[in-house]
């Protein structure tokens, strides 16, 4: 997640620029070591360093600079979201698979978030009128084309983690399908973006967009972590809904809204029924990721 990493201090989020985090080599072990969930600063910092390390290696500033300089800048300057970390955290709780693939999925999620963020804030679109828009280091033509390139690179990064001869290969394919649906025409993008009344001009509901955007990304992240962690179909669906509610909570908090948070938390924890007591305890701590 670019721009900053989400750390936890006594239950409160603190954004630390990724540039000051020391890279942590992603683990390639099949079964991750048991971790203490909840508000463990070291754990969340480690997750974000894993994502950062993979992205730094995948998108160095190199020739041709006209391609890789704006790509590196836009990826690492997008505001952070917690969906990628949620993907890895859920994988770690389930703990049956290759963690490096979960890190690749989380990095791909951040790339897709970065691409959407770039497109949402192009200086020549209505969406760029947000008071909280970014400073533009490149022209709209460069940002548009670079954003278009970042999105498919997310799938490429995920595909690179696959080995067709690996017993876990089918999970990577399922995650690619999961992301394609979430980011495609029938997923969160069209649903959460602008609506066009018949015969009228586009309108934009920023609060609704933020909530549904965060919900969509977190639902996708949770489902991907579940798939890579060898959850069955029922568990994947439960965790997809769990992630949706967690993301909606994040979306409301981002806009300073406090109404309905407790109801969303209850809906999220209700989706955990059927998991073991230990997993319910660990997963429940992610509601306030």
Question: What does this protein structure show overall?
Answer:
This protein has 289 residues and is mainly alpha-helical. It has eleven helices and two strands; from the N terminus they run E-E-H-H-H-H-H-H-H-H-H-H-H. Strands 1-2 form a two-stranded antiparallel sheet. The model is unreliable at 1-38 and 194-202 (pLDDT under 50).
| Tally of individual helices | 11
Order of helices and strands: EEHHHHHHHHHHH
Going by helix content, strand content and strand pairing, the class is: mainly alpha
Strand order of the largest sheet: 1-2
> Low-confidence stretches at least 5 residues in length (pLDDT < 50)?
1-38, 194-202
**Hey, roughly how much beta strand do the residues contain?**
under 5%
Q: Overall mean pLDDT score? A: 81
Taking the sheet with the most strands, its summary is: 2 strands, antiparallel
SS elements, strand count: 2
The rough form would be described as globular
Q: Whole-number radius of gyration?
A: 18 Å
Span of the ends, CA to CA: 14 Å
Helical proportion? 55-70%
How are the SSEs ordered, and which strands pair?
Elements: E1 5-9, E2 12-16, H1 41-58, H2 65-76, H3 83-94, H4 99-120, H5 140-160, H6 169-183, H7 188-192, H8 206-228, H9 233-254, H10 261-270, H11 277-284
Antiparallel strand pairs: 1-2
Summarize the entry for a quick read.
Helices cover 58% and strands 3% of the residues.
């Amino acid at each position: 997640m670019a721009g900053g990493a989400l750390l936890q201090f006594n239950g409160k989020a603190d954004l630390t620029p990724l540039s000051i985090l020391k890279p942590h080599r992603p683990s390639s072990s099949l079964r991750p070591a048991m971790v203490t969930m909840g508000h463990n600063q070291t754990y969340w910092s480690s997750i974000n360093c894993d994502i950062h390390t993979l992205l730094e290696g995948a998108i160095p500033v190199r020739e041709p600079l006209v391609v890789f300089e704006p790509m590196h800048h836009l990826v690492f300057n997008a505001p952070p979201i917690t969906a990628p970390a949620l993907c890895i955290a859920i994988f770690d709780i389930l703990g049956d698979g290759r963690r490096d693939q979960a890190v690749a999925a989380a990095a791909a999620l951040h790339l897709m978030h970065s691409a959407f963020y770039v497109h949402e804030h192009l200086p020549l679109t209505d969406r760029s009128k947000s008071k909280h828009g970014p400073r533009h280091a490149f022209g709209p033509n460069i940002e548009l084309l670079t954003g278009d390139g970042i999105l498919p690179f997310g799938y490429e990064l995920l595909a690179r983690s696959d080995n067709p001869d690996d017993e876990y290969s089918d999970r990577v394919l399922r995650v690619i399908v999961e992301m394609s649906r979430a980011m495609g025409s029938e997923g969160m993008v069209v649903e959460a973006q602008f609506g066009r009344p018949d015969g009228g001009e586009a309108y934009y509901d920023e609060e609704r967009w933020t909530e549904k955007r965060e919900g969509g990304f977190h639902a996708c992240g949770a489902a991907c972590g579940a798939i890579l962690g060898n959850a069955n179909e029922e568990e994947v669906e439960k965790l997809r809904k769990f992630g949706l509610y967690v993301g909606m909570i994040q979306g409301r908090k981002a806009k300073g809204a406090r109404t309905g948070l407790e109801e969303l938390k209850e809906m999220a924890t209700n989706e955990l029924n059927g998991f073991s007591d230990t997993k319910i305890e660990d997963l429940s701590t992610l509601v306030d990721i």
